[in-house]
Amino acid sequence: MEKRWLLRVGPPIVALSALGLVAGASAGAVEERWEPPDCGGGGNRTAVVALRPAPRAPNEIRGESWFRLDPVLDATGTLAGQRLEIGVHGRAVRRMALPPESFGAGPYGGIVLVGSDDGRRSVLRAMDASAGCAALVARERSVIRRAVLDPAGTTVYEFRVDRASRADLGVWRRPLGGGPAKRVLAPLGDDDRFGRTFSTELSWSVEGDRLAVAQCGQTACRVRLLEPATGRVRMIARPDLGELVGVTADRVVTYAACRGIPCPILSTDADGLTEVVAPTAGIARLMRTDDGPRLVHEVVTGERVELHVVDPAGDRPPVEIAGPGDGLRLAPDSARGAAGLRVPEGWALLAPDARPGASAVLVRIADGTAVSIPEVTR
User: Fold this and answer.
1) Is the distance from CB of 312 to CB of 267 less than 8 angstroms?
2) DSSP readout, 44-92?
3) What is the distance between the alpha carbons of residues 336 and 320, in angstroms, rounded to a whole number?
4) 367 CB-contact burial (10 Å; exposed 0-12 / middle 13-18 / buried 19+)
5) Gyration radius of the chain's alpha carbons
6) Which of 36, 318, 345, 368 is the most buried (most CB within 10 A)?
7) What are the tens digits of pLDDT across the range 49-84?
């Protein structure tokens, strides 16, 4: 069984450590001290970059922004920092050393949100990978643990904890261009059924109309869905539900409350009815397609990895598509993979370590067509 998360502090890297897939970890490495200059132009410029259209076909991947965040370990194996790699596909990469408590999110158009905390203050920046610059979004005394940009490219949502006690401070929002923040979700209360919260992730529904806040204990997770347009909040708090895979329409798709993968994947509707949509699954993600949202997940048998495509509503039978080839794994979303590269709608990214990098392949989930994409220049 693979561990679902490699790290509970810092980015919740999808757990493929048992297979040696987190290849970027290094022991005591000396990192480049690249520091991006200020982009200038204020929030309007950053919003324009964030709304660049996504690629429509595999040949448009070149020029897309990407990032990956890897742990840096000291001689004792303790997390000493994070190494950020950020760039534009087909061009040289920039590398940056960050503190242990750092994260990345996106890309949103050409923007990657990067948060870091030096033990005194949290800094959140919107990095323009193409221009090689950054715009300051926030500087806070409390700890910003996670952040996402809204689909309109104008508002950042932040999850914070208290610096001294690490107590939950709720979810806040502020303009992308910086400015005062307002709390939109109160701290999550204690619940003995879930135990101590170890990780919190922010993501958007497939439709982009709801913010999902998934807060997980050792195995079980609670999910709150916020509708920014109305302020309404829906809570799913069941100890049989685990890590969030995605949200679409009235459905919340999660793993079961397993200690790792493979694990069943469950789909829960607005009435609380739950069905198993994948009895045993490896890495999974919920994707938009021409036929509606689809769950794509791995079925791993020994060294063989198959991809199955499932209707999250359970209205259609699962479809198996051709395997991507030995050694390739499905890339999850950036929240779970600590890495991101936008791909055309209806295509899945696969790579040796399940993250953007060498020997990546795009697979069209409608029919299993596989297309190699040029290696990220590193």
Assistant:
1) yes
2) HHHHHHHTPPPPSSGGG-TT-EEEEEEEEE-TTS-EEEEEEEEEETTS-
3) 24
4) exposed
5) 19
6) 36
7) 999 999 999 988 888 999 999 999 999 999 999 999
